[in-house]
Amino acid sequence: LDYMVVIYLYFPEESEIQEHEIYSVIRHPAYLGGVLLGIAGLFFRFSVYSIFLGILVFFVFRLQIWKEEKELIERFGEGYNEFKKKVPALLVRPNKIRAYFRFLRKH
Predict the structure, then answer these.
(1) What pTM, to 2 d.p., does this model score?
(2) Percent of the chain with pLDDT over 70
(3) How far apart are CA 105 and CA 102, in angstroms?
């Protein structure tokens, strides 16, 4: 398990907004991975079902992010709103592409 998940779930008073490494590029890297897998499946098969599944995966993750971020705003308040303004949820900004691939190469 990711260390931050353990801290977030079991020690909520000790959790804090993470703005380093991958979290400086994207707010929800695990969901981005799922969306990229959905897109890969879409291009691999390119059938009506894969298109539907790719779109469904994207919207399910967006719904989950919406629910999760309501809780994060409750927990972290205005600090999380500022973080949301600086870092996108699922799309890597063009000026951060190098940092994203640098992180992937490193890990």
Answers:
(1) 0.73
(2) 81
(3) 5
